[in-house]
Amino acid sequence: MTAASGPPPTTISAWRPSVPGISEVFHAHFTDHAYPAHTHDTWDLMILDDGSVDFALDRQRHGATGSGKVVLLPPGVSHDGRTVTAAGFRKRVLYLDLTVLPEHLTGSAVDGPVLHDALLRHRIHQLHTALGDAGTTADDGSGGRPRAGGGRGDAAFEAESRLAFIRERLRLHLAPPGRLDALLPRTPGREANRLAAELRGLLDSRIPAGISLQEAAATLHAHPTHLIRCFKQTYGLPPHAYLTGRRIDRARRLLLDGHRPAAVAAAVGFHDQAHLNRHFTRHVGTTPGRYAARGSGSS
Fold first, then answer.
1. Is the alpha carbon torsion for 265, 270, 271, 276 positive or negative?
2. Using a CB cutoff of 8 Å and minimum separation of 24, what contacts does 262-271 make?
3. pTM, to two decimals
4. CB 3.0–4.6 Å: which of 23, 58, 193, 233 could bond 95 by disulfide?
C-alpha cells in the first residue's frame, strides 16, 4: 500500500544581485506558512506564479490569487502573510530600496497594495528572468541557490533597463491624479536618432566590459527609459539585445581563431561559459563548441 503523498515541500531561493536599487531577490513556494507581523526598510514587490496569499497591511486585510496581479508593500508599514489553500502559493519578490521609489509614496501603496496591471506583471517577470541568468534558481532542499552577483555582466544592462521601466510604471500607479501628466513617458522626437547613435557608440566601445544604464544615461544627459525608447525606435531592438548580438559576433571570430569557449566567454563579456552557450545557441543555432569544431573541419 502506497503512503498518501503530502503537500510539496517548501522551497526558497534568495540572492543579492549586482543591480543598483535591488536589495534582494527572493523566490519561494510555501505550502503551510504564516509570516508574523513585521516591517521592511525596502519596498516589497511581489508576483504570484500560482496559488493564493492573504495578508494584512497596516491592519487592513487583502488577498491575491493567481498570476495576474502585483503586490506592492511599502517600507516601514507593518504587514503579515499566510497561505490560503493546502497547495500554498509560489511567489517571486524583489526588495527595492528607496532609490527606486521614494518613501513619500508610502501612503498611496497602503491605500492600494494589489495592482491589476498585466504589463507591469510581465515586466517584473522579465526582470526576474534577467536576474536569474547569472545563476541557477533551483533549490533542491540542500541549500542550493543562485551564485552571488546574479545580474552582473551580460545581464546587467538588461536588468537595469527592465527595472527602469518597472519604476516608471509603479510611479504612475502611486502618483496623485494631478501628477500623472508629468510622469507619462515622453515619445521620442527629433533627438531619437542622435541619442540612439551615441548610445550605440558607447556600447560598441565597451563590448567586453559593458556599461551600466545609469552611466550611459548620465553620459548622454538623457532619462534612462527615454534613452532606451530612442534606441529601440531607431534600431528596432533594445540596447541590451544589441550588446548581446555584438558579443556573439566577437565570440564567433574568436572561436574560429581556435580559442576555447570558456576563454571566449570571458573575453567577450559573458558571465561564464553557460551564458555564452545559451546566447550563442539562440543566435547561431548551435553551441560554441560545435561551431568551432565545424569551423576547424573537425567532426
1. negative
2. 264/288, 267/208, 268/207, 268/208, 269/153, 269/154, 269/207, 269/208, 269/209, 269/210, 270/153, 270/154, 271/133, 271/134, 271/152, 271/153, 271/154, 271/155
3. 0.86
4. 23
The strand pairing partners of 17, in sequence order, are none
Cell 552577483 sits on residue: 149
Higher per-residue confidence, 166 vs 186: 166
Q: What is the pLDDT of residues 147-160, one digit of tens each?
A: 433 334 557 899 99
| pLDDT tens track for 171-203 | 999 988 766 666 677 888 999 999 999 999 999
Tell me if residue 182 falls in helix, strand or coil: helix
Arithmetic mean of pLDDT, 26-39: 91
